[in-house]
Each structure stands twice: as structure tokens, then as C-alpha cells.
Amino acid sequence: CEDLSVNLNPDGTICVTAQDIDGGSSDNCGITTQEIGTVVGPDPAALTVYALNPWSSSNNIASYSYNSVIDELILDSSPYLSTGVVNNFSLSVNPVDNKVYLLAYSNTTGSRSLFEFDILTGSIISELGPVISVNDNNNPNAMEFDDSGNLYVAFGGGDINILNISTMTTSAFSQVPFSGAAGLAYDSDQSRLIYASGDDPSINLSAIALGSGAVTNLFDFAIDPGCCTAQGIEYVSGGKLISTGTYGGNTIYTIDLNTQEVTTLLEPTGSFSSIKSLLIYPPTSISYQDPCVEFTCDNIGDNTVLLVNTDASGNSSSCEATVTILESLPTALCQD
Known about the structure:
Blueprint: E1 4-6, E2 13-17, H1 18-21, E3 31-40, E4 47-52, E5 61-67, E6 72-81, E7 88-93, E8 100-105, E9 112-118, E10 123-130, E11 140-145, E12 151-155, E13 159-164, E14 169-175, E15 182-187, E16 192-199, E17 202-209, E18 215-222, E19 231-237, E20 240-245, E21 252-256, E22 262-266, E23 277-280, E24 285-288, E25 292-296, E26 301-311, E27 316-325, H2 331-334
Parallel strand pairs: 1-27
Antiparallel strand pairs: 2-25, 3-24, 3-26, 4-5, 4-23, 5-6, 7-8, 8-9, 9-10, 11-12, 12-13, 13-14, 15-16, 16-17, 17-18, 19-20, 20-21, 21-22, 26-27
């Protein structure tokens, strides 16, 4: 992607196309479509949080209404969905296409595998195959997408790999300190992964840089009451995570990465004795605009747009560009 600075036309508008911000995209399979859009976030006062129970096969996903402005979390009136499989490990959503994926034990392969999952109806769409690291580790614990659609998987032992869903192959990315099990989240505000692991009752949080895979220790904290090792973590916004202990623990709480404050939301009575993964859905999404994104006087300054390329095999990749609408004209229209 290339950043772009433009003036408005005399009528007070300008239309920016995918080609205007494309810095020279290429693909071995050939790019078949290019789309441009803007990033649209969900209402922070009306989020839905899904909590995944690790051991059951039925009624093992509970949904909550979450107001992240006042940190109010309420179990929905008809909250339960089913994965249909036992030994569930992680839920994650690709923000490029809003597809949800489940990491769970497969009776077909006899190992932990990736499934495409319909979070609205609670049904498996397809089984994609086993998830195995480049070091032949077949114990993935957690997974998370970044905003470009790259899927990161945390394995037992501290390996972080990138999983190519179209080929179901992994590539090495990073190595983190590992103790117990793990949780993985994507901090969209600082474009980094957040990794959680620890031994009862102390949990450690680390940040992983997307470009280099470099690991930075953030801080440790203790769960009260102490329980659990793995952490189901999900990024909300503004440095806030929603999180839960896993084995034998159902306390859901927030973590403020800026102040290091940990605040209990609730112990969801009527839900589960254990929660392995949390998912906010719908996530931040892309509003595609064909054939261009139109800007007006209201958009003077910097604006973020997203370029999405799709190849002949249906694989998509994306990047962000900043479109700066200059203040120089048309002053008469913009001052009305």
C-alpha cells in the first residue's frame, strides 16, 4: 500500500480507488480482484462475547452481552451453542472476511485440527486439517488473526507459528516463555500480539512484534482467587483485554495494558466451570465500497483505508493506507 495526499474536487468530493493506493501488488497465482474499503468497528456498548468450554461437546459456547464502556457483562437469555466436538481449544475470527475458526480435537485425524465454524448457528462448516508446527508439535493451544488475515498459532512449549489456511502448513514466527497453557490476542491499536501464560496463580503477559517476532515482557499479575494456568484473552480496544482463567475457573475479568489494572467483571453463574477461549463477534470489519471510497469536507485530515487483493485460488491479503485530504480547497464549500 502507498499513502496518498489529495485535494478535493471543486464540488467538495474526491473518489479514491484501490489502484490509487496500490504500491505494486503481486501474487504467484495472479490477482483477480482488488477492493477498497474502510474499517468499521462494532458498537463498544453492544458487543457479543462468546465463551468456549474446553471439555463438553454440546452447549459448550455461552454468549454474553458486553458493554465495554461501563464493563457490564450479562449472560444472554438463550446463551448456548454447541461445537459438536470435545477438547475445544480456541475460537478466532478473520477480520478480512469475518469467517470464524475453531481449534479442537478431531475424531477424523486424531489430533488438534482447524475447523471453519458458524458462530451464529453453532455448527461446523468444514474440517480443514490438523495443525502441526514446523517442529512437529501437534499441541496448539491458542490462535489469533491480525487485521491483515494472518493466523498465528501458539503451541505447547512456546512456539508461535503462522498458519497458512489454504495449504494447512505452518512457518516459524516467534518463541515465547511458556508455562502451563497459553492465550493469544491481537492488539489492533499497536499492531502486536499479546501472549498470556503462567502457573497458578501468577500469569505473565508478553507482547510480540508482528514484523520481527521480538518478544517484550509486559507484566505479571495474580488471579484472585488463584486458579488456572491458560488464559483465554481477547482484545477489546484502547489497551483493554477481556480475559478468563481456564481450568477450573470461570471468572471473567478485564486487563488494562496501560495501567496494569485487573478488574473482575463476574463469575458467570449458570455458565461453565471452565472457559478456554473468548471471542468478540462481530469484530472490526471492512466496509467495501465499489468502485471507490468517497471523501468530502468532513474527511479533511488523515483517513485509513484498506486494500484487499484476492488471487485466483480465493486467497486474500490486505494492507492499510493513509489517505490525507488536504485543507487547501475548496474553501468555500468546506467553510459553509
